[in-house]
Amino acid sequence: MDTAPTLSELSARTAARFAEVFGQAPNWTVAAPGRVNLIGEHTDYNDGFVLPMAIERYMVLAAGPAAAAESGQSSGNIIRVFSDLIGSAQTFTVGQVAELPPWCVYLHGVFDLLAKRGLNTGPLEVLVTSTVPLGGGLSSSAALEVATATLVEAVTGQVLDGRDKAKLCQQAENQYVGMPCGIMDQFSSALCRAGEAMRLDCRSLETTPVPLSDPNVSILIINSNVKHELSNSEYPVRRAQCEEAASALGVKSLRDVDPAALAAGWSKLSEVAYKRARHVVGEIARVLEFSDAAANADWSTAGELMYASHDSLRDDYEVSCPQIDTLVELAQSIGPSGGVYGSRITGGGFGGCTVTLCETAKAAAIADRILAEYKDHTDIEAMAFTSRPAQGAHVVRYQ
Ligand code: GLA
Questions:
Q1: How many CB atoms lie within 10 A of CB 225?
Q2: For the domain that residue 36 is a member of, what is the CATH number?
Q3: Ligand 1 closest atom vs CA 41
Q4: Cβ neighbour number for residue 309 with a 10 Å cutoff
Q5: pLDDT at residue number 231
Q6: How far apart are CA 37 and CA 242, in angstroms?
Q7: Shared domain check, 368 and 279
Q8: What tens digit of pLDDT does each residue of 132-169 get?
Q9: Residue 233 domain boundaries
Q10: Cα separations in angstroms, 123 against 114, 377, 398
Q11: Which residues form ligand 1's pocket by a CB distance below 6 Å?
């Protein structure tokens, strides 16, 4: 089982690296977590419900003001960023269009949108580090955006409303990165709370806590270490198919369709649009059922809903892949007697991670067995870890 440093260890390490790279201690250190979605996949952009929790894996930024002489102009927002993840530095001026490496576009988008609202940081030096696996479906991108917004809040002393901050980060991803994502990932990284999953109504943005504090139950995350390029191109296609289905059924979004209305309206839909809609309508209902089951500590029912979600994502939404299906089948074959309640793909799909609900005492043995059998089947080394529900983004340290 993979382990990661605690947030305080990681923050101390990040501050020390900042001092090595920039020659002074940082003034601010901020952290934003990744997330795992327990259930409610591809429902956020359909105005539905989702049930993510933040994980104890973080994007951490340490920063300090850059010397004006070094940046050349004291009033410009020149940002010098060093990514400890790839060992490379980059400099950009907020608001100036430039070719940037993809990881910098997330930072620049957030800096720019906040500067347009009058939150100007002045020249900064920033060091980025992370324990969120990159590109693994655990929202490393959203964590980077939310960490950046949290840094700007710390530097300017202007604190945003959490919902507003999540929406701004989503806007950065939509407009600057060009990924038409929903609100779930940024919302989770900004607003989740320790000890609970967060049921989010993506239409009203109302949240309902779903406590996950039973020490006997664990959330096991397994990274397939597979990432198909399809994820970027197919996501907008799925969104468009959902919009097509909603419009053919004469509603604003698939949130407004229940199973009876979908069955009555099937002849108005293409076969593909019908399958996509069937996933979304069923998945929205499963989020509500899962929340009730979790509130009653009925983990068997919660687990069955996870398998149903996976089947629907594989067959109707068609966003799984053989390696992920293997991970879910291996978990399912261990079954309740071996401590597994349920398992499913999590995140956008086409690779990435599975999330498995299991007995805490058996989690390590379950992970070992799945990893070994996955290696036999696919010849790929997967990576597994457990996480309790973590706290959303916050400032770790001011100096
Ligand atoms: C990605 C997107 C989210 C959401 C999920 C699928 O993570 O960023 O907005 O749509 O896929 O549930």
A1: 17
A2: 3.30.230.10
A3: 12
A4: 28
A5: 76
A6: 20
A7: yes
A8: 999 899 999 999 999 999 999 999 999 999 999 999 99
A9: 217-387
A10: 14, 51, 18
A11: 41-42, 44-45, 181-182, 184-185, 347-348
